[in-house]
Amino acid sequence: MNATEVQPALLSDAVQAVRLGQRMLAREILAGIIQLEPKNEHAFTWMAAIAESREEAIRLLECVLEINPRNSFVANTLGVQRLNRGPATAPVALDEPWFADSESNSVACLVCQAERTDSAATCGLCGAAYTLQDLPSVLANGGANERRIDEAVKRWLVQLESGPTLEALIGVGLGYLSINRSGDALPFLLRALKLNSSDLILQDLCESLAERRLILAVDDSTTVRRLVSITLERQGHRVRTAIHGLDGLGKFEEETPDLVLLDLTMPEMDGYELCKAIRRSPGGKQLPIIMLSGNDGVFDKVRGKMAGATDYLTKPFQRDVLLATLTKYWQPTESRERVSHGKINPHR
Question: What is the pLDDT of residues 211-253, one digit of tens each?
Protein backbone atom coordinates (compact mmCIF):
# COMPACT_ATOMS: atom_id res chain seq x y z
CA MET A 1 0.00 0.00 0.00
CA ASN A 2 1.54 3.33 -1.06
CA ALA A 3 1.46 6.66 0.75
CA THR A 4 -1.39 7.98 -1.43
CA GLU A 5 -3.58 5.08 -0.27
CA VAL A 6 -2.57 5.37 3.39
CA GLN A 7 -3.03 9.11 3.90
CA PRO A 8 -6.85 9.30 3.55
CA ALA A 9 -7.19 6.67 6.28
CA LEU A 10 -4.66 8.49 8.48
CA LEU A 11 -6.46 11.79 7.98
CA SER A 12 -9.75 10.12 8.90
CA ASP A 13 -8.14 8.79 12.09
CA ALA A 14 -6.76 12.24 12.91
CA VAL A 15 -10.16 13.87 12.46
CA GLN A 16 -11.76 11.21 14.64
CA ALA A 17 -9.12 11.79 17.31
CA VAL A 18 -9.89 15.53 17.24
CA ARG A 19 -13.59 14.89 17.66
CA LEU A 20 -12.90 12.60 20.59
CA GLY A 21 -10.79 15.25 22.26
CA GLN A 22 -7.45 13.48 21.75
CA ARG A 23 -5.55 16.44 20.31
CA MET A 24 -2.06 15.16 21.13
CA LEU A 25 -2.68 11.95 19.18
CA ALA A 26 -4.25 13.95 16.34
CA ARG A 27 -1.17 16.17 16.12
CA GLU A 28 1.09 13.12 15.92
CA ILE A 29 -0.98 11.62 13.09
CA LEU A 30 -1.19 14.91 11.19
CA ALA A 31 2.55 15.52 11.56
CA GLY A 32 3.15 12.09 10.05
CA ILE A 33 0.88 12.91 7.10
CA ILE A 34 2.68 16.20 6.50
CA GLN A 35 6.04 14.42 6.60
CA LEU A 36 4.79 12.03 3.90
CA GLU A 37 3.06 14.77 1.89
CA PRO A 38 4.36 18.28 2.70
CA LYS A 39 1.63 19.90 0.58
CA ASN A 40 -1.42 18.22 2.11
CA GLU A 41 -3.65 21.25 2.73
CA HIS A 42 -6.23 19.25 4.70
CA ALA A 43 -3.60 18.08 7.19
CA PHE A 44 -2.37 21.65 7.67
CA THR A 45 -5.96 22.88 8.11
CA TRP A 46 -6.63 20.38 10.89
CA MET A 47 -3.26 21.15 12.49
CA ALA A 48 -4.38 24.77 12.61
CA ALA A 49 -7.69 23.73 14.17
CA ILE A 50 -5.90 22.14 17.13
CA ALA A 51 -2.99 24.57 17.39
CA GLU A 52 -1.86 25.41 20.92
CA SER A 53 -1.80 29.15 20.24
CA ARG A 54 -3.39 31.64 17.87
CA GLU A 55 0.02 32.51 16.38
CA GLU A 56 0.65 28.87 15.54
CA ALA A 57 -2.79 28.60 13.98
CA ILE A 58 -2.16 31.65 11.79
CA ARG A 59 1.20 30.25 10.65
CA LEU A 60 -0.40 26.93 9.70
CA LEU A 61 -3.26 28.61 7.87
CA GLU A 62 -0.71 30.64 5.91
CA CYS A 63 0.90 27.33 4.89
CA VAL A 64 -2.47 26.19 3.56
CA LEU A 65 -2.78 29.31 1.40
CA GLU A 66 0.73 28.81 0.08
CA ILE A 67 -0.34 25.33 -1.03
CA ASN A 68 -3.71 26.41 -2.38
CA PRO A 69 -4.21 30.19 -2.79
CA ARG A 70 -7.78 29.53 -3.96
CA ASN A 71 -8.91 28.07 -0.63
CA SER A 72 -11.45 30.79 0.18
CA PHE A 73 -12.50 29.15 3.45
CA VAL A 74 -8.98 29.36 4.86
CA ALA A 75 -8.42 32.83 3.39
CA ASN A 76 -11.51 34.18 5.14
CA THR A 77 -10.65 32.42 8.39
CA LEU A 78 -7.09 33.69 8.30
CA GLY A 79 -8.34 37.24 7.86
CA VAL A 80 -10.56 36.91 10.93
CA GLN A 81 -7.71 35.42 12.99
CA ARG A 82 -5.35 38.24 12.04
CA LEU A 83 -7.92 40.84 13.03
CA ASN A 84 -8.51 39.10 16.37
CA ARG A 85 -4.86 38.38 17.00
CA GLY A 86 -4.13 38.25 20.72
CA PRO A 87 -1.11 37.21 22.80
CA ALA A 88 1.11 34.63 21.13
CA THR A 89 0.40 32.20 23.93
CA ALA A 90 -3.37 32.61 23.85
CA PRO A 91 -5.07 29.22 23.78
CA VAL A 92 -7.11 28.27 20.74
CA ALA A 93 -10.81 27.71 21.42
CA LEU A 94 -12.41 24.71 19.73
CA ASP A 95 -15.63 26.58 19.10
CA GLU A 96 -13.98 29.26 16.95
CA PRO A 97 -15.13 29.42 13.29
CA TRP A 98 -12.01 27.80 11.88
CA PHE A 99 -12.48 24.55 13.79
CA ALA A 100 -13.61 22.64 10.71
CA ASP A 101 -12.24 21.17 7.53
CA SER A 102 -12.45 23.00 4.23
CA GLU A 103 -15.63 21.22 3.21
CA SER A 104 -17.87 21.57 6.26
CA ASN A 105 -18.14 23.67 9.39
CA SER A 106 -20.23 21.15 11.34
CA VAL A 107 -19.38 17.94 13.17
CA ALA A 108 -20.77 14.80 11.58
CA CYS A 109 -22.57 12.05 13.47
CA LEU A 110 -20.01 9.35 14.26
CA VAL A 111 -22.50 6.64 13.20
CA CYS A 112 -24.44 7.82 10.13
CA GLN A 113 -22.14 10.77 9.22
CA ALA A 114 -25.07 13.21 9.00
CA GLU A 115 -24.02 16.80 9.67
CA ARG A 116 -24.77 18.24 13.07
CA THR A 117 -27.13 21.15 12.60
CA ASP A 118 -28.05 22.01 16.19
CA SER A 119 -26.84 21.66 19.77
CA ALA A 120 -28.83 18.49 20.52
CA ALA A 121 -27.00 15.60 22.21
CA THR A 122 -28.19 13.08 19.62
CA CYS A 123 -28.18 12.93 15.83
CA GLY A 124 -31.34 14.27 14.23
CA LEU A 125 -31.20 11.56 11.53
CA CYS A 126 -30.31 8.28 13.24
CA GLY A 127 -30.71 9.27 16.90
CA ALA A 128 -27.24 8.07 17.97
CA ALA A 129 -25.34 10.04 20.61
CA TYR A 130 -22.73 12.46 19.28
CA THR A 131 -20.09 11.37 21.79
CA LEU A 132 -18.88 8.31 23.64
CA GLN A 133 -18.03 10.34 26.72
CA ASP A 134 -21.23 9.73 28.75
CA LEU A 135 -21.98 5.98 28.67
CA PRO A 136 -25.21 6.14 30.72
CA SER A 137 -26.64 8.72 28.33
CA VAL A 138 -25.64 6.65 25.30
CA LEU A 139 -27.23 3.52 26.72
CA ALA A 140 -30.36 5.27 27.97
CA ASN A 141 -31.00 6.90 24.60
CA GLY A 142 -34.59 6.06 23.65
CA GLY A 143 -34.68 7.98 20.40
CA ALA A 144 -32.35 5.82 18.31
CA ASN A 145 -33.63 4.82 14.87
CA GLU A 146 -32.67 1.15 14.72
CA ARG A 147 -33.18 0.82 10.98
CA ARG A 148 -30.98 3.81 10.12
CA ILE A 149 -28.30 2.79 12.60
CA ASP A 150 -28.29 -0.77 11.28
CA GLU A 151 -27.83 0.56 7.74
CA ALA A 152 -24.98 2.82 8.86
CA VAL A 153 -23.27 -0.02 10.75
CA LYS A 154 -23.45 -2.24 7.66
CA ARG A 155 -21.71 0.48 5.63
CA TRP A 156 -18.95 0.76 8.23
CA LEU A 157 -18.54 -3.04 8.28
CA VAL A 158 -18.06 -3.07 4.51
CA GLN A 159 -15.42 -0.35 4.89
CA LEU A 160 -13.66 -2.39 7.59
CA GLU A 161 -13.18 -5.22 5.11
CA SER A 162 -10.53 -3.03 3.47
CA GLY A 163 -8.73 -2.53 6.77
CA PRO A 164 -9.39 -1.12 10.25
CA THR A 165 -9.75 2.61 10.74
CA LEU A 166 -10.52 4.40 13.96
CA GLU A 167 -13.51 6.15 12.40
CA ALA A 168 -15.15 2.91 11.18
CA LEU A 169 -14.55 1.03 14.44
CA ILE A 170 -16.02 3.88 16.51
CA GLY A 171 -18.94 4.12 14.08
CA VAL A 172 -19.80 0.45 14.52
CA GLY A 173 -19.25 0.47 18.28
CA LEU A 174 -21.33 3.58 18.96
CA GLY A 175 -24.01 2.35 16.56
CA TYR A 176 -24.39 -0.94 18.41
CA LEU A 177 -24.39 0.81 21.78
CA SER A 178 -27.19 3.09 20.61
CA ILE A 179 -29.50 0.13 19.92
CA ASN A 180 -28.82 -1.88 23.11
CA ARG A 181 -26.15 -4.17 21.70
CA SER A 182 -23.19 -3.50 23.99
CA GLY A 183 -22.04 -7.10 23.64
CA ASP A 184 -21.56 -6.56 19.91
CA ALA A 185 -20.11 -3.08 20.44
CA LEU A 186 -17.26 -3.95 22.81
CA PRO A 187 -15.09 -6.00 20.37
CA PHE A 188 -15.05 -3.07 17.92
CA LEU A 189 -14.35 -0.52 20.64
CA LEU A 190 -11.46 -2.65 21.89
CA ARG A 191 -10.01 -2.70 18.38
CA ALA A 192 -10.39 1.08 18.28
CA LEU A 193 -8.57 1.32 21.60
CA LYS A 194 -5.65 -0.64 20.15
CA LEU A 195 -5.38 1.99 17.42
CA ASN A 196 -5.72 4.83 19.92
CA SER A 197 -4.36 3.53 23.22
CA SER A 198 -3.98 7.04 24.67
CA ASP A 199 -7.72 7.77 24.45
CA LEU A 200 -8.82 7.84 28.10
CA ILE A 201 -12.50 8.26 27.23
CA LEU A 202 -12.43 5.16 25.04
CA GLN A 203 -10.45 3.25 27.65
CA ASP A 204 -12.95 4.11 30.39
CA LEU A 205 -15.82 3.11 28.11
CA CYS A 206 -14.31 -0.29 27.35
CA GLU A 207 -13.61 -0.95 31.02
CA SER A 208 -17.16 0.05 31.99
CA LEU A 209 -18.67 -2.27 29.39
CA ALA A 210 -16.36 -5.13 30.33
CA GLU A 211 -17.43 -4.86 33.97
CA ARG A 212 -21.01 -5.67 33.00
CA ARG A 213 -22.13 -9.27 33.42
CA LEU A 214 -21.89 -11.05 30.08
CA ILE A 215 -24.66 -13.31 28.81
CA LEU A 216 -24.23 -15.45 25.71
CA ALA A 217 -27.63 -16.04 24.05
CA VAL A 218 -27.62 -18.74 21.36
CA ASP A 219 -30.82 -19.10 19.35
CA ASP A 220 -31.60 -19.40 15.63
CA SER A 221 -34.63 -17.12 16.04
CA THR A 222 -33.87 -13.48 15.27
CA THR A 223 -36.88 -12.43 17.34
CA VAL A 224 -35.80 -14.37 20.43
CA ARG A 225 -32.24 -13.06 20.20
CA ARG A 226 -33.44 -9.48 19.88
CA LEU A 227 -35.95 -9.74 22.74
CA VAL A 228 -33.41 -11.34 25.07
CA SER A 229 -30.78 -8.77 24.13
CA ILE A 230 -33.05 -5.75 24.68
CA THR A 231 -34.42 -7.11 27.96
CA LEU A 232 -31.05 -7.89 29.50
CA GLU A 233 -29.13 -4.91 28.12
CA ARG A 234 -31.70 -2.58 29.67
CA GLN A 235 -31.03 -4.28 32.99
CA GLY A 236 -27.37 -3.28 32.79
CA HIS A 237 -25.98 -6.52 31.36
CA ARG A 238 -23.90 -7.12 28.23
CA VAL A 239 -25.32 -9.62 25.76
CA ARG A 240 -23.59 -11.41 22.92
CA THR A 241 -25.80 -13.37 20.55
CA ALA A 242 -25.12 -16.33 18.28
CA ILE A 243 -27.27 -17.78 15.50
CA HIS A 244 -26.42 -21.47 15.98
CA GLY A 245 -24.30 -23.82 18.03
CA LEU A 246 -21.02 -23.44 16.14
CA ASP A 247 -21.35 -19.66 16.23
CA GLY A 248 -22.07 -19.86 19.94
CA LEU A 249 -19.05 -22.07 20.60
CA GLY A 250 -16.80 -19.62 18.77
CA LYS A 251 -18.04 -16.66 20.81
CA PHE A 252 -17.77 -18.66 24.03
CA GLU A 253 -14.10 -19.32 23.22
CA GLU A 254 -13.49 -15.62 22.52
CA GLU A 255 -14.74 -14.52 25.93
CA THR A 256 -16.14 -16.68 28.73
CA PRO A 257 -19.61 -15.40 29.70
CA ASP A 258 -21.19 -15.30 33.14
CA LEU A 259 -24.19 -17.30 31.92
CA VAL A 260 -25.40 -19.00 28.73
CA LEU A 261 -28.94 -19.05 27.34
CA LEU A 262 -29.17 -21.89 24.88
CA ASP A 263 -31.88 -22.96 22.42
CA LEU A 264 -32.25 -26.71 21.95
CA THR A 265 -33.14 -26.99 18.26
CA MET A 266 -30.64 -25.25 15.98
CA PRO A 267 -28.78 -25.94 12.72
CA GLU A 268 -25.07 -26.77 12.55
CA MET A 269 -24.87 -27.85 16.22
CA ASP A 270 -27.90 -28.28 18.47
CA GLY A 271 -28.18 -27.08 22.05
CA TYR A 272 -27.36 -30.44 23.59
CA GLU A 273 -24.07 -30.74 21.71
CA LEU A 274 -23.11 -27.15 22.45
CA CYS A 275 -23.87 -27.65 26.14
CA LYS A 276 -21.59 -30.71 26.23
CA ALA A 277 -18.83 -28.80 24.42
CA ILE A 278 -19.01 -25.93 26.90
CA ARG A 279 -18.91 -28.32 29.84
CA ARG A 280 -15.72 -29.88 28.46
CA SER A 281 -14.04 -26.46 28.52
CA PRO A 282 -12.22 -25.40 31.73
CA GLY A 283 -14.19 -22.14 31.78
CA GLY A 284 -17.51 -23.91 31.36
CA LYS A 285 -17.50 -26.58 34.04
CA GLN A 286 -19.35 -24.48 36.65
CA LEU A 287 -21.00 -22.04 34.26
CA PRO A 288 -24.80 -21.63 34.54
CA ILE A 289 -26.37 -22.89 31.29
CA ILE A 290 -30.09 -22.28 30.86
CA MET A 291 -31.74 -24.22 28.05
CA LEU A 292 -34.63 -22.70 26.08
CA SER A 293 -37.27 -24.74 24.32
CA GLY A 294 -40.77 -24.43 22.93
CA ASN A 295 -41.49 -27.91 24.24
CA ASP A 296 -42.25 -28.44 27.93
CA GLY A 297 -41.71 -32.20 27.70
CA VAL A 298 -40.13 -34.21 30.49
CA PHE A 299 -37.87 -36.04 28.03
CA ASP A 300 -36.28 -32.80 26.81
CA LYS A 301 -35.64 -31.67 30.36
CA VAL A 302 -34.02 -34.97 31.31
CA ARG A 303 -31.88 -34.96 28.17
CA GLY A 304 -30.87 -31.37 28.90
CA LYS A 305 -29.80 -32.27 32.43
CA MET A 306 -27.76 -35.17 31.08
CA ALA A 307 -26.02 -32.80 28.67
CA GLY A 308 -25.09 -30.55 31.59
CA ALA A 309 -27.84 -27.91 31.62
CA THR A 310 -28.33 -26.02 34.87
CA ASP A 311 -31.99 -25.21 34.29
CA TYR A 312 -34.68 -25.12 31.63
CA LEU A 313 -37.05 -22.39 30.42
CA THR A 314 -40.04 -22.96 28.19
CA LYS A 315 -40.67 -20.44 25.39
CA PRO A 316 -42.39 -18.08 25.33
CA PHE A 317 -41.22 -16.97 28.76
CA GLN A 318 -42.09 -13.83 30.68
CA ARG A 319 -39.54 -11.08 31.28
CA ASP A 320 -39.76 -11.45 35.06
CA VAL A 321 -39.23 -15.22 34.83
CA LEU A 322 -36.11 -14.73 32.69
CA LEU A 323 -34.64 -12.13 35.06
CA ALA A 324 -35.45 -14.23 38.14
CA THR A 325 -33.76 -17.28 36.60
CA LEU A 326 -30.61 -15.34 35.79
CA THR A 327 -30.45 -13.85 39.27
CA LYS A 328 -30.82 -17.30 40.79
CA TYR A 329 -27.75 -18.66 39.03
CA TRP A 330 -25.35 -15.72 38.93
CA GLN A 331 -21.82 -16.50 40.04
CA PRO A 332 -19.97 -13.80 42.01
CA THR A 333 -17.85 -11.95 39.45
CA GLU A 334 -14.89 -11.82 41.80
CA SER A 335 -14.78 -15.63 42.07
CA ARG A 336 -13.28 -16.23 38.65
CA GLU A 337 -11.45 -14.55 35.81
CA ARG A 338 -13.04 -14.00 32.43
CA VAL A 339 -11.19 -15.77 29.64
CA SER A 340 -10.64 -13.63 26.58
CA HIS A 341 -7.25 -14.61 25.11
CA GLY A 342 -5.60 -11.66 26.84
CA LYS A 343 -7.79 -9.07 25.11
CA ILE A 344 -9.50 -7.91 28.27
CA ASN A 345 -9.63 -8.92 31.89
CA PRO A 346 -12.17 -6.68 33.60
CA HIS A 347 -11.78 -8.46 36.94
CA ARG A 348 -8.07 -7.90 37.31
Answer: 999 999 998 888 788 888 888 988 889 999 988 888 989 999 9
pLDDT, tens digit, 9 for 90 and up, residues 93-107: 433 333 333 333 345
CA distance 238 to 230: 10
The dihedral over CA atoms of 92, 97, 101, 103, expressed in degrees to the nearest 10, equals: 180
Q: What is the pLDDT of residue 215?
A: 94
Task: Report the candidate in 213, 252, 253, 218 with the shortest Cα–Cα distance to residue 233.
Answer: 213
Assign residue 180 a region (left: φ > 0; alpha: ψ between -120 and 50; beta: otherwise).
left
Q: Is the dihedral of CA 135, 141, 145, 146 positive or negative?
A: positive
- Residue 169: CB atoms within 10 A of its CB come to 26
Q: Rounded distance, CA 135 to CA 238, Å?
A: 13
Q: Which helix (H) or strand (E) holds 75?
A: helix 72-83
Beta strands in the chain, from DSSP E residues, in sequence order: 214-218, 238-242, 259-263, 289-293, 311-314
Distances (CA, A) of 146 to 9, 108, 169, 251, 264: 27, 18, 18, 24, 29
DSSP notation for 135-189: HHHHHT-----HHHHHHHHHHHHHHHTT---HHHHHHHHHHHHHTT-HHHHHHHH
pLDDT-flagged residues of the chain (< 50): 1-5, 87-106, 333-348
Q: What are phi and psi of 139, to 5 degrees?
A: -75, -30
Determine contact, residues 208/135, Cβ cutoff 8 Å. yes
DSSP code for 199:
-
In the sheet with 214-218, reading across from the earlier edge strand, the strands are: 238-242, 214-218, 259-263, 289-293, 311-314
**Is 7 in contact with 40 (CB distance < 8 Å)?**
yes
